Amino acid sequence: MSTIVLVGVPGAGKTTVGKLLAKELGLDFLDSDQVIESRTGKSVSDIFTQDGESAFRQIEHDVIIDLLDSSNTVLALGGGSLGNDDTRAKVKSAKTVWLVAGLAQAVDRVGMNRNRPLLLGNVRGQLADLMAVREPFYKEVAKIAVDTSKLIPSEVVTEIVAEFKKKDTK
Question: Is the pLDDT at 141 greater than 50, yes or no?
Answer without folding.
Answer: yes
